[in-house]
Structures are given as structure tokens and as C-alpha cells.
Amino acid sequence: xxxxxxPWRATILTLYPEMFPGPLGLSLSGDALARGDWTxxxxxxxxxxxxxxxxxxxxxxxxxxxxxxxxxxLAAAIDAAAVDAATGADDPRPRLLMSPRGRPLxxxxxxxxxxxxxxxxxxxxxxxxxxxxxxxxxxxEVSIGDYVLxxxxxxxxxxxxxxxxxxxxxxxxxxxxVEESFEGGLLEYPHYTRPRDWEGRAIPDVLSSGNHAAIAxxxxxxxxxxxxxxxxxLRDGSVAGQAGSRSITGPSRx
Length: 254
Fold this sequence. Notes:
Blueprint: E1 8-14, H1 27-35, E2 38-44, E3 57-58, E4 68-69, H2 71-81, E5 95-104, H3 107-115, E6 118-123, H4 131-136, E7 140-143, H5 153-164, E8 197-198, E9 201-202, H6 212-230, H7 232-235
Parallel strand pairs: 1-2, 1-6, 5-6, 5-7
Antiparallel strand pairs: 3-4, 8-9
């Protein structure tokens, strides 16, 4: 079975399912969603909450501020979402937890996710989630930046947007996903369009020369210059794989 036969599937576990699809329902991702190129299901963790009030959290063991998502509640939500409804088989999709201490999301990881069957994404809230469910359900902690958000929902939207735009047919030209920042370890070269002159600033002559080899050389040189100035870490390889370094962001506190 090919991607053409089965859409890329995203399942979100959240306390605020009404936040989805949000901006993903617009523009290219929204068009692709309407065409069935990908699917999105937002499930409310509170459906598996305890007692009359559907409680999902409790005070942190050892004391401290805030609340922690319970492992039994979150595990029940994951188990309900990670089973193929048609066959009852285990869901092969990676299970992501948006977390400020997670591994930084990279374009390479995005490409891997986009090439797969989809993703199940857990959105944390409060001070975080019980550590035991992370290990017990094989959650991959992922961060989108060195800062803390109120919850994982916005971070999950970032992950989905980055993946969906790479699905076949979502962007007009395949080059749109190849000649851009972080592809090949470089930031993207500058772009220009009409008018040729604007406020005393002109489009570089080489871009109007018609010499495609010269244009390619200029773009490469500009990409290297910008990368050296703004992100030298990309060139020395310290971020290229980003398989383990510092946290990036997602959720945790509210």
C-alpha cells in the first residue's frame, strides 16, 4: 500500500481539542486536509479522566508548585488512540511528546516523519507529565525551541505544519522543499522580485543575467555567507543531526 492509498495520519492528544486544526485548516495544509492527503484527529485526554469531574492531574510527588498529568489517565488516552480501529493492531506511528526538555526538532527529523505513516502527538500541560508514562508508552520527547509555552498544542501545530508541507502534492514544486533553509546544512539564500529598483536598492545584476551557472554560484555563496554570520553551528556539524543536544520546546507549564 502506498502513500496514495493511505493518507498521512495525525492524532493529537490534548486537553483542548478545539485548538485543532487551527491554522492548519487554511492555505496549503488546509487544502491538503480537504483533499484527504492527510487526516487530523484531536482527542480529549479528559475523556479518560477519573471520577465525576474527569480529573487528569494531581500534585507532584515530593512537593512543589503546579500539577502533573497522571500516568494512568494519559496511558489510557494513548492506548485508546494507538490501536488500529479496523484491525485492532498496534499503531506503527511514532509517539511524540511535546516537551521543553525534548530533542530539538530538525528538518531531517521532519522529513523522516513526513515519509512515514503519520504521528501521534501528546500535548503536555501544567508542570509536565508523569515520567513513568513517557517510558511505559515509548514517548519521544520533542522540542521546538529553548523556551517554555503554556502547553504543547502550539508546538504540535508547528510539527504538523512542517511535516504536511512536505507531503507529495502539497507544495507546487518539489524544489520548494529542497532549496530552503536547513537543507544541505545551510540557511537559504536571499530572494528578490519586481520592482527591479526599490528605495535605492536594486536586485543584484547576476539574477538578471540569464547565466544560470553564475546565479547558482551566487546563491551558494550567499547561503554560505548568511549561514556563517547567523548560524555557524550549522556548518561545524554541532546541530546538523541534533540527535541529542539541548531541549527545544513544547509545553509543560501553564
